[in-house]
Request: fold
Amino acid sequence: MKPKPTKRLVLPPGAENTGGAGSIFFVGTATVLLRYAGFTILTDPNFLHAGDHVHLGYGLTSERKTNPAIDLADLPPVDLVLLSHLHEDHFDRRVARELDRSLPIVTTEQAAASLRGMGFGRAEGLERWGAIVVEKGASRVRITAMPARHGPPVVSRFLPDTMGSMLDFESPALRLYVSGDTLVHEDLRAIPRRYSGIDLALLHLGGTRILGVLVTMDAAQGVEALQILDPRKAIPIHYDDYTVFRSPLEDFVKAVREAGLEDRVVYLARGDTFTFDVKEPGRRAA
Reply:
């Protein structure tokens, strides 16, 4: 297969690389703040509150049942946004109205085109397996679009294009995977063949159902994804915030326990922070 061209994004120098110290702050839904190697990255920004509704297309709506751990206005300075797809529970109308339009957003080609039309001129679209190298002073992270399927083949044609992401930080080396909204499918099995040694995985769960059709991983598929991807640690997110989520976190906890994978999973409530310190390179393919 011909390699995809690699894009490049240069950010202004800022906070120095803090060595191997990093953190994941769970805001809610699929929204986290990742701090590592001098970067602050916001994923799938959703800052609506309990009782608010999102529009999912074709006249479908869903009510938020929870509040975010922090509000949009209280975010620290962010270097870039990583967006799996353009659904309102991942990029809501408040974010569309209030987010700084100068922020770079790395997402699918389809979503990037829509975002540029909304005034987000630095939206960068990636095709599957395409990559962008982000530089900030002496720090570098390579973001590669991973295969994702937001529902069975017939249904996914009527949903926004979606992607997972692999973030490869250079120093200290860290490989972090974000699933995006996806089901387990055959292309997912290509990820560990191309990208072994995943240090940390963020898994979008929830068992989301639209008109009764499963469009994100439920508990059983979440465990299957763990077994396929084999990360050192995994954090489940996107699991109980909206009424379309039908597979509660307790189901995943039970399935993980039954699979004997308890030592591989870290559970965060909204507002919790997972801190880590990379003392040596992760498991990398030769």
Residues 106 and 244 are 26 Å apart (CA to CA). Confidence is low (pLDDT under 50) at residues 281-286. The chain has six helices and 18 strands.
